[in-house]
Amino acid sequence: MTQRILIGKLAVLLASLNEEELGFLHPNLTEIRFCKGRVGSMNLQKVIAAVETAAKRERLIEDQHYRETHALYHAILEAIEGVTRGQSGIGEMKRTVGLSFAVVRGKPYLEEAEGEWLAVAFYGTIGAPVKGLEHEAVGLGINHI
User: Fold this and answer.
1) Which GO terms describe its molecular function (predicted)?
2) What is the b/e burial string over 38-56, where b = at least 16 CB atoms within 10 angstroms of the residue's CB?
3) What are phi and psi of 106, to 5 degrees?
4) Backbone dihedral region of 127: left (phi > 0), alpha (psi from -120 to 50 degrees) or beta?
5) Phi, then psi, of 92 in degrees rounded to 5
6) CB 103 within 8 A of CB 117
7) Which residues pair with 123 in a beta bridge?
8) How far apart (Å, rounded) are the C-alpha atoms in residues 127 and 87?
9) How far is the C-alpha of 83 from the C-alpha of 138, rounded, in Å?
10) Helix, strand, coil shares of the chain as percentages rounded to 5?
């Protein structure tokens, strides 16, 4: 491979595209390992669990390898900080999220020894738990495996 794969940029793009929009890109994504999903909650643990479950279901991480689960967890927390503007509480702060997410696994560096990395991106809304009072938000987290 002669070109870096920008896993963060790709994750943000995938998280923000709907299924119809993704259809235009999908044929070009055959060599990229990723998963997508949606989660809405006032509970941060449910958001974390949704991403972790999707990544495990799509075999982006191996459950028996602690370092992979650990890397995913830190990437999720970093991405959540972007969505919540550094205040990672949701329900306890009387706010809710409706998010699409993407997890991308890849080798973003040309040097093979740099290994694999995970990028987690969220795109959606955050706000008071009243329909119409939310606003858009995006978050990105990247961690090495």
Assistant:
1) RNA binding
2) ebebbebeebbebbbebbb
3) -170, -175
4) left
5) -65, -15
6) no
7) 100, 138
8) 13
9) 5
10) 40, 30, 30
Residues 58-109: pLDDT tens digits?
Answer: 999 998 899 999 999 999 999 999 999 877 777 677 788 999 999 999 998 8
Which candidate, 2, 12, 4, places its Cα nearest to that of 83? 12
Hey, what are 87's tokens? Answer: 């205040």
- pLDDT per residue over 101-136, tens digit each? 999 999 988 888 999 999 999 999 998 888 888 899
Tokens, residue 18? 């709907």
Domain 7-19+33-144 carries which CATH code? Answer: 3.40.1510.10
Judged by phi (left if over 0) then psi (alpha if -120 to 50, else beta), residue 59 lies in left
Instruction: Fill in the amino acid letter for 86.
Output: G
Which residue reads 């963060």 in tokens?
A: 8
Contact assessment for residue 120 and residue 141, using Cβ atoms and an 8 Å cutoff? yes
